[in-house]
Amino acid sequence: MRSHASVMHLDLDAFFASVEQRDKPSLRGKPVVVGGVGGRGVVSTASYEARRYGVRSAMSTREARSRCPHAAFLSPRFHAYRAVSDVVMGLMRELSPLVEPLSLDEAFVDLVAADLPDLEVATVGAVAEELRSRVADATGGLTASVGVGTSKFIAKVASDLDKPDGLVIVPPGAELDLLRPMSVTIIPGVGPATAERLRRAGITTVADLEAVSLDELVRITGRAHGAGLYALARAQDDRPVVPERETKSVSVEGTYDTDLTDRPLMEQLLTRQAGEVAARLKKSGLSGRTITIKVRLHDFTTLNRSTTLPSPTDHAGTIARLARALFADLVEAGDTSGGVRLLGVGVSGLADWIQEDLFGDSLEPEDEPAPDLPDPGLTRRSREGWQPGMDVVHRELGRGWVWGAGRGVVTVRFETARTPAGPVRSYAADDPDLTPWRPDGS
């Protein structure tokens, strides 16, 4: 733990939904939900207006619609989110060269590396306020919540305390006073299962956790987890801010509208996903030793199975063969008999070399061609067509976004971040005057 509050955590508020409200004037001040729009979809981000109705991230879209049926349910526009993220990360790097992005919408900043006259609370507070103001100006009004503390853990806790658009600085020496009344779930890694184990032991707050010995915590949660909980309950966190986070895994997954029960089809889907993973590995000049499949069952139970090779690979054929073998183990154990709603393939244990580098000739089987699957309308992510929220352009009326689509009709609201709320018009889904808009102009 540092002697000064010199670690900053910045978190853009309700990021995806806020970008949508910025770019769609008619949605400002109204509930907006971004994520999968189908019955099997999951909420990625909900605006604060939607959160008042109990909508939250990771909730099923079906439940979100029942809680807030009048919300705008939109598919993600990652090109817009990445553009905003690049701007914000650039502003943070202007402040300090040590910026550690956690995702598109949050990052740590090490203020020790910033050119500041000192690291007193008043100084870092002024710097944080200036950064928040610059973020709002550069992003067209998006807000950010900022926490500053003596460690990454404290800074991240602080940034959540006054959302949205807040700033909280935890002075040195005040960490335990802040943490002790809080639920143990504030500590990273304490999910529902660990929280329940701790509750059964009479541990519900950080103060309760602080009073437990290391040996007892290890007995309750395991050695690796127990040691981490013991340290964080005492605000002990010396993790540095690391400016370049290495890619730890590459994965592809799909959620399906109808539970899958046909084994050959699922094996073909895994083969196709393996091919996509291999392509991403090759594009990044990476390979990996550990192949993992992820299978979510009809009852939301999630199963993960993995196997590790003696040497790394980027070959689609090898990844597909091992993924299918792992899946076969689940099928033969009867775990998939009730139907599958999600399939995924991933590769971890990454390296920047493959077997050919060691042996000269490839020891891998030839890559399998991606299967030419029938189109049973399995996944909304892969369907062609008009998705709610997507950017479009009309030959006469210009830029707009898809309000809704179905039965051969697409409804568009014509507006952008730089215009007032615009008119709504409907067209045939195959109207040649209406096309998707892309930032590269293609």
Walk me through what this model shows:
- There is one protein chain.
- This protein is an alpha+beta fold and 442 residues long.
- The chain folds into 4 domains: 1-170, 2-Layer Sandwich (Alpha-Beta Plaits); 177-232, DNA polymerase, domain 1, CATH 1.10.150; 249-376, Dna Ligase, domain 1 (2-Layer Sandwich); 384-436, SH3 type barrels (Roll).
- The protein has 14 helices and 17 strands.
- A 5-stranded mixed beta sheet has the order 5-6-1-7-8.
- Strand 7 (144-149), helix 6 and strand 8 (167-169) form a beta-alpha-beta unit.
- The chain is globular and about 65 Å long.
- The N and C termini lie far apart (50 Å).
- It is found in: Cytoplasm.
- Residues 7-191 form the UmuC domain.
CATH topology term of the largest domain: Alpha-Beta Plaits
Number of separate helices: 14
Q: Can you identify the CATH class of the largest domain? A: Alpha Beta
- Proportion of residues in extended strands: 15-25%
Overall average pLDDT:
88
Provide the gyration radius in Å: 24 Å
Tell me the helix content.
Answer: 25-40%
Number of domains: 4
Kindly report the spatial arrangement of strands forming the biggest sheet.
5-6-1-7-8
Pfam family, one: IMS_HHH_1
Keywords: Cytoplasm, DNA damage, DNA repair, DNA replication, DNA-binding, DNA-directed DNA polymerase, Magnesium, Metal-binding, Mutator protein, Nucleotidyltransferase, Transferase
EC number: 2.7.7.7
Active site: 106
